[in-house]
């Protein structure tokens, strides 16, 4: 039995594409309408591959399907692993009419997407995100890339997929920690732009943590729709799109300090959003009660409330300075004017910033 | 004394940019109007850097100028060397408003351009090509990228510069072999689209080989104009732009066989164009006299007339099959319908192709 629960179109002119969300879709939905040539290269990892590769193959009837299996983990989001994709493409003589397919979480999506952006200067790709985080985050926006030892996502490209297929069945096997990491981004959409969605999340959080399929599909749909609205307004991230980075400047500092992969991206964003909400109180935008609502929802999603053990104020300040959200040296942050209304500022007072950092350092716990 | 001899605009809508050609321009022309932020990263190599780096710095008054010096040579057009650029950008905390500057030949341009295309998912760059080949080839088209052990330019991006500055003074120190390699591409423009330019080249070839500045500037201008006309018709290389690959499918096979860097790109293209002209005779498009005119001009430019020692027919056939000009397995070649009129075909007869390969294998000499 399969059931399409939601469909939406990401509207980007001649690079528009559909997102199909439902249960039992993988291997049932025919994806060949989005494959221009005869060749398909599925990029997956050694965790997701054994679970879903054969189903994914069945979505490309009549095509020549090759596969490259990457090691699983954020720490492999690097040149060496990216090159495994190029090796596989060239060894199997894939031409510039090949189509890449990302089957896995955000790391697989970012790497397969960047490989597609740069193989022979650009070939099409299809996303089949299998984690909640990648379903609500990587499905929309066209961001692809890899990490550098000195910073996350420092090398990459904007490259839009031909189509995205989201099968909620793939979440039933997802570790609880990764569900929580995905819920961080879901909560983010409520916080930055949609107070009605925030109320819905407060009401339905237990169902989401309990992996109820209809609730999950609804949360994914509303998250993708929110992100699509923002991205359509600002595809290349010159303006409003920056609000999607709520919690990310703090979060990237946490991830970099902890070492890629030891904190999940969504976990770092969860803590980072609490920090952004805390700073928004100190800057006089939201109330302490708003902060407590925000922190309570993030904690109910199972996310950490403090920075990693042994992280210091100076670590935050150093690592935030190389974050790519900075323009010509100014520290830019996303704050909340109200719950459901984020904005970008480079005017946060340094003493408020330091108070916020102090409140979330591990010894503060 | 400096003298602007030619200016042209590459017309690509909101990605249009100017090319300025003349003598004594480097360090005199102010390039800061094309720098949006405060930071500049000059990418050069250890041959060009000692000759022109200080002049190049002087073209960016008032900006913070950092430099990364790469090892010189096609064999360094790889991931490892590309990463030196990212290392320098991150170590010097360059933001997404930095501007990269390519100071050098085609390898530096391709790598600095790809670094600009992918650093933080894309930053602006300026080209200062210092070899004849890069002045007439890389200045127009937006192609950037690196090599893979299994094929040239297999990983890259389309990324247009903000501006191109061509100073013919930089050709006075260029080795004769590299002048010849550049003349191969100059001749190409005459062959594919401009029989009047071909006549001009037959008249002026001795001046070009003798490095007369006005003749060089004229040849560069007409070459860039020809390429700009073709690229403006077909920016992403779906159609007519493929004629720019005259001689390149044969040439890439030669370069790959010889090992990157042992034959210059232009040398391989020179031999490749003779092979394309030869095949065009066998296919019944041009006369033997046309072939002899073509071959004579290419030889006068100082280019090799045979494939590398020990290269076999099978080497060509294997290496041409992975060339990126192939679509879904069909061997596509650029041939001449007449001198000054190239076209793309996948219908060359296999026996004619083998005769052409045989005529240019080293033992044929």
From TrEMBL, chains A, B:
GO terms for biological process: amino acid biosynthetic process; aromatic amino acid family biosynthetic process; chorismate biosynthetic process. It catalyses: 7-phospho-2-dehydro-3-deoxy-D-arabino-heptonate = 3-dehydroquinate + phosphate. Residues 182-326 form the 3-dehydroquinate synthase C-terminal domain. GO terms for molecular function: 3-dehydroquinate synthase activity; metal ion binding; nucleotide binding. Keywords: Amino-acid biosynthesis, Aromatic amino acid biosynthesis, Cobalt, Cytoplasm, Lyase, Metal-binding, NAD, Nucleotide-binding, Zinc. Zn(2+) binds at residues 185, 248, 265. Pfam families: DHQ_synthase, DHQS_C. Residues 68-180 form the 3-dehydroquinate synthase N-terminal domain. Its EC number is 4.2.3.4. It comes from the Bacteria. NAD(+) binds at residues 72-77, 106-110, 130-131, 143, 152. Its cofactor is NAD(+); Co(2+); Zn(2+). Its main location: cytoplasm. It is found in: Cytoplasm. Binds 1 divalent metal cation per subunit. Can use either Co(2+) or Zn(2+). GO terms for cellular component: cytoplasm. Pathway: Metabolic intermediate biosynthesis; chorismate biosynthesis; chorismate from D-erythrose 4-phosphate and phosphoenolpyruvate: step 2/7. Catalyzes the conversion of 3-deoxy-D-arabino-heptulosonate 7-phosphate (DAHP) to dehydroquinate (DHQ). Belongs to the sugar phosphate cyclases superfamily. Dehydroquinate synthase family. This is 3-dehydroquinate synthase. The lineage of its organism: Bacteria, Pseudomonadati, Pseudomonadota, Gammaproteobacteria, Pseudomonadales.
């Amino acid at each position: 039995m399969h059931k399409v629960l939601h469909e939406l179109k990401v509207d980007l002119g001649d690079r528009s594409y559909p997102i199909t969300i439902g249960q039992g879709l993988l291997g049932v939905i025919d994806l060949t309408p989005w494959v221009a040539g005869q060749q398909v290269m599925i990029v997956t990892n050694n965790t997701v591959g054994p679970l879903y590769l054969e189903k994914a193959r069945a979505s490309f009837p009549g095509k020549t399907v090759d596969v490259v299996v990457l090691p699983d983990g954020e720490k492999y989001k690097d040149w060496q692993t990216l090159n495994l994709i190029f090796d596989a493409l060239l060894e199997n003589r894939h031409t510039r009419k090949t189509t890449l397919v990302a089957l896995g979480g955000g790391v697989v999506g970012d790497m397969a997407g960047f490989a597609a952006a740069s193989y022979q200067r650009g070939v099409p790709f299809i996303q089949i995100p299998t984690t909640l985080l990648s379903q609500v985050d990587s499905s929309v926006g066209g961001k692809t890339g890899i990490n550098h030892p000195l910073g996350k996502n420092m090398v990459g490209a904007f490259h839009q997929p031909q189509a995205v297929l989201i099968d909620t069945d793939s979440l039933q096997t997802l570790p609880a920690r990764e569900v929580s990491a995905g819920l961080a981004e879901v909560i983010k959409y409520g916080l930055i732009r949609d107070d009605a969605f925030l109320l819905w999340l407060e009401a339905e959080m237990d169902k989401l943590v309990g992996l109820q399929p209809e609730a999950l599909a609804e949360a994914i749909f509303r998250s993708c729709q929110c992100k699509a609205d923002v991205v359509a307004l600002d595809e290349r991230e010159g303006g409003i799109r920056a609000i999607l980075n709520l919690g990310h400047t703090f979060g990237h500092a946490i991830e970099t300090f902890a070492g890629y992969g030891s904190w999940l991206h969504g976990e770092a964003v969860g803590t980072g959003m609490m920090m952004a909400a805390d700073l928004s109180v100190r800057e006089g935008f939201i109330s302490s009660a708003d902060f407590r609502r925000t922190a309570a929802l993030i904690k109910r999603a199972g996310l950490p409330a403090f920075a990693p053990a042994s992280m210091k104020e100076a670590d935050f300040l150093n690592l935030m300075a190389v974050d790519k959200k900075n323009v010509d040296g100014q520290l830019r942050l996303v704050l909340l004017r109200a719950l459901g209304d984020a904005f970008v500022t480079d005017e946060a007072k340094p003493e408020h910033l330091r108070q916020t950092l102090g409140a979330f350092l591990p010894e503060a716990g």
